[in-house]
Amino acid sequence: MPGILGKKLGMTSIFDEKGKVVPCTVIEAGPCTVLQIRTKDKDGYAAVQLGFGTRREKNISKPQLGHFAKLGVRPTRFIREFKSFADGTLKSGDMVTVELFAVGDKVTVIGTSKGKGFQGVMRRHGFGGVGGTTHGQSDRLRAPGSIGSSSYPSRVFKGMRMAGRMGNARVTYKNLKVVKVIPESNVLVIKGAVPGAKQGLLEILKQG
Amino acid sequence: MNKIDLLEQSLMKTDLPPFFPGDTINVHVRVKEGDKERIQEFQGIVIAIRGEGLKKSFTIRKISDGVGVERIFPVHSPSIAKIVKVRTGNVRRAKLFYLRTLAAKQVRAKTK
To answer: Which residue among A70, B7, B36, B50 is buried most deeply as judged by most CB within 10 Å?
Structure first.
């Protein structure tokens, strides 16, 4: 799927052609430099490597600097590879811009969700807690309940949902609609919310 | 100015008269009936304005056949054809929800 890298700027709401309010996310998408073309023969898989953002030269290791110098482009903050980018018309040094998308396109947006820290089972997995507050019960209100049987199997099954770290994970939202494309300012407006905090890196994939 | 503000600004109306809580305004609302479109007027006192930029909205109240009617409009909604300011009010509050409990005569006295 062809895609682009972007930065979440925040949310707002705009009016559609019927006058209805549409909640939407504003994303600064691209321009991305094509840094390398991975081919089946040479690398074992086909992909396009895109760079996004800027980074100062002093903050980059020499081997990486060479990678950018080969193309004579400014070092980018982020590098991501996109598999099965259409046909192979792109070559190293090309630019991928927000014009890749048109209004009405369906897109998949991938980001890193906001970290929530160590959370209990109610917040993390939507458990209902145990029982009520009366009948002498005092400390079980947000508890997970039973986590399995006793002598058989004498252990807790793997993958049992329990309290722990929540968020800060790669999250994919599919079938989001493009509401507006503004090529002059590299802005992409998408209906609904996308994962992550403001200023977070997003991968935006065009759906087939 | 950031890109969200610029985007909002490009979609905002610029031909609206400035109005404040306490003012009496006449809102021309586009009403779609089948494939025909007509204008419906709604006149009343602005009792609240909330939000900023493109998301700004206002609440307008009138007494219709003895029943209080309130409508909330997004200021920059395309379904608002025009806003006409009828009367400037003089009030000391930003939100005039207390008008709901007052009689018509008291309302007039309060917004003079």
So the answer is: B7
